[in-house]
Design goal:
Helix content is 47%, strand content 13%. By secondary structure, it is α/β, with parallel strands linked by helices. It has 4 domains: 3-133, Rossmann fold; 144-308, Rossmann fold (3-Layer(aba) Sandwich), CATH 3.40.50; 311-387, Orthogonal Bundle (Helicase, Ruva Protein, domain 3); 395-448, Homeodomain-like (Arc Repressor Mutant, subunit A), CATH 1.10.10. The strands form 4 sheets. A 5-stranded parallel sheet has the order 2-1-3-4-5, sandwiched between helices. Helix 13 (317-331) crosses helix 15 (355-369).
C-alpha cells in the first residue's frame, strides 16, 4: 500500500484529505508543520507528500528544499490558499511535481496524487533499468591493461573526437564504446549500434540513412535511418571492415558534411552525431588490398583504441569468473559456485581464442550444467589442446615460462605412462632420478595427475 503524508496547519484540511485518500486505498499520515514533516520523512518512506506552502515555522518551500537535502525521493505536491505564479515557479524549480490551490477539488486532488505516484514509479523503474544496464556493461579487471584503458576512456569520453576501437572478437569493443558514451556529454541521448557484418549488403544503406515512402518496392512508409536516430548522441559502427565500398563512400560524405539524403529523397537531413567505430580485422591489410578506403580510415581513426586479448591480462580472469558466476547464478536462481584454485589456474593457462565472450559462455555453462557446488579443474569443459600456453605475455620471465611448459609436459608424460615414473622418464629420454628432481623442483603433485 502506497503511503502519503499530508502536511497542513489546518486540521480540517488534514482530516478531509486523510478520509478522501484512505477511501482511494492509500495509507495516510498527517502533520501540522514543516519541522514535523522533516522528522517523520526521515523515518518513513512516503510515495507522495501533499505540502502546504504557508506553514508556521519553516514554510512549505523551505521544507521542500530540506526534504531534498536529506535525500527524500517522495514526489511532492504543493498546496496553497493564495498561491502566486512566482511561488509556483519556485516550487517547480525545487522539484515539486504539481501545485494545487485551495479550496481543493476532490476529483483534481485524487487525480493529481495518482499521476504523481505513477510518475514516481516510472522514474524509479527507469533508474532500476539504467542501473541494470550499467551492470550489464560494467568493465571488469584491475590489470595494468584495464587500468590504462579506463584512464584513456576518461580522457577521451568528454570530447566529440571520433574513436576507432580495434581488437580481437570477444574482447569487449562494444563495452568500451558504451563506456565512452556513458561518460560523455551525450550520455542522455541515444546510443545507436549498427553491425555492418550482420546486415545484408542490400539493406545497409537503408539501415544507415533511412528511406521515404515509395523509395523502393516494399517501402510502404517513411523510416528514419541509424544516423538520424542517433542525432545528438552516439552512433556505434561495429565491424566497419565489412562495409562495401559504396557504403564507405556514403559514410565518408556524412562524416565530411554532417548531412545526408535518405533513400528516395532529395532533401538533406542534417545530424550531429559522434561516431565510434570498431573492427576485429586488420584495416591496414584491407587498405593495401583496396577493400577499405584510406580517407575513411583517417576520418574514423582520430583517437585509436586497442583492446587487449584476454590471454594478455590473465590476472583479470578470477575477477571475471566471479562476476559471471554471480550474474548467471542470480539469473538462474542458483547458489553461486565455488571455483577452486585448480580451476582458476587451468583457466589462466588457457589462451581463450574467443576472449571474454568465450569465458563468459564457459562460466554460464558450468552454472547451468554442474550440480556440484565446488568446481575444480576436472569440472571444466575440455579446452582445445593448442590453446594452452600459447601466449608468452602471461609469464613475467623466461624461467617462469620454461617452468610452466616443463610442468605441463611432465604431467602429460606421467599421465601417458599411467603414473609409472620410470616409464615416463623413458618416454622423455631422461634418467628417472633427474625426473624426480624436476618433479620436486616444479612442485608437481603426483596425486592430482589424471591417468
Amino acid at each position: 500500500m502506497q503511503k502519503i503524508l499530508v502536511v497542513d496547519d489546518e486540521a480540517g484540511i488534514r482530516n478531509s484529505l486523510r478520509a478522501i485518500l484512505e477511501d482511494e486505498g492509500y495509507e495516510v499520515e498527517t502533520v501540522a508543520s514543516g519541522e514535523e514533516c522533516l522528522k517523520i520523512a526521515e523515518k518513513s518512506n512516503f510515495a507522495c507528500i501533499l505540502l502546504d506552502v504557508w506553514l508556521p515555522g519553516i514554510d512549505g518551500l523551505e521544507t521542500l528544499k530540506l526534504l531534498r537535502d536529506q535525500g527524500s525521493d517522495a514526489v511532492v505536491i504543493m498546496i496553497s490558499g493564495h498561491g502566486t505564479i512566482e511561488t509556483a515557479v519556485m516550487a517547480t524549480k525545487l522539484g515539486a511535481f504539481d501545485f494545487i490551490e485551495k479550496p481543493l477539488s476532490i476529483e483534481k486532488t485524487v487525480l493529481t496524487v495518482r499521476n504523481a505516484i505513477r510518475t514516481r514509479e516510472l522514474e524509479l523503474r527507469n533508474a532500476e533499468l539504467a542501473e541494470a544496464l550499467n551492470q550489464e556493461y560494467v568493465m571488469i579487471g584491475n590489470s595494468v591493461a584495464m587500468r590504462a584503458l579506463r584512464k584513456q576512456i576518461a580522457i577521451v569520453a568528454p570530447t566529440d573526437g571520433r574513436v576507432l576501437i580495434q581488437g580481437e572478437s570477444g574482447t569487449g569493443k562494444e563495452l568500451v564504446a558504451r563506456a565512452i558514451h556513458n561518460q560523455s556529454r551525450r550520455k542522455e541521448k541515444a546510443f545507436i549500434e549498427v553491425n555492418s557484418a550482420a546486415i545484408p549488403e542490400e539493406l545497409v544503406e537503408s539501415e544507415l540513412f533511412g528511406y521515404v515512402k515509395g523509395a523502393f518496392s516494399g517501402a510502404t512508409q517513411t523510416k528514419k535511418g541509424k544516423f538520424e536516430l542517433a542525432d545528438g548522441g552516439t552512433l556505434f559502427l561495429d565491424e566497419i571492415g565489412d562495409m562495401s565500398p559504396r557504403v564507405q563512400a556514403k559514410v565518408l560524405r556524412v562524416l565530411e558534411e554532417s548531412r545526408f539524403e535518405p533513400l528516395g529523397s532529395n532533401t538533406l537531413v542534417k545530424v550531429d552525431v559522434r561516431i565510434i567505430s570498431a573492427t576485429n580485422k586488420n584495416l591496414d591489410e584491407l587498405m593495401e588490398s583496396g577493400s577499405f578506403r584510406h580517407d575513411l580510415f583517417y576520418r574514423l581513426n582520430v583517437i585509436p583504441f586497442q583492446i587487449p586479448p584476454l590471454r594478455e591480462r590473465i590476472e583479470d580472469i578470477p575477477l571475471l569468473v566471479d562476476h559471471f558466476n554471480r550474474k548467471f547464478s542470480l539469473a538462474y536462481g542458483k547458489k553461486p559456485k565455488e571455483f577452486t584454485e585448480s580451476a582458476i589456474q587451468a583457466m589462466q593457462e588457457y589462451s581463450w581464442p574467443g576472449n571474454v565472450r568465450e569465458l563468459k559462455n564457459t562460466v554460464e555453462r558450468i552454472v547451468i550444467m554442474k550440480t556440484k557446488q565446488k568446481i575444480t579443474a576436472d569440472d571444466l569443459p575440455e579446452f582445445e589442446s593448442d590453446g594452452f600456453l600459447s601466449s608468452s605475455s602471461r609469464f613475467p620471465s623466461f624461467k617462469e615460462a620454461m617452468d610452466a611448459f616443463q610442468r605441463r609436459f611432465i604431467e602429460q608424460k606421467i599421465a601417458e605412462a599411467d603414473g609409472n615414473i620410470s616409464k615416463a622418464a623413458e618416454l622423455m629420454g631422461i634418467d628417472r632420478s633427474h625426473l624426480y628432481r624436476r618433479i620436486k623442483a616444479l612442485g608437481i603433485n603426483l596425486d592430482k595427475i589424471k591417468f
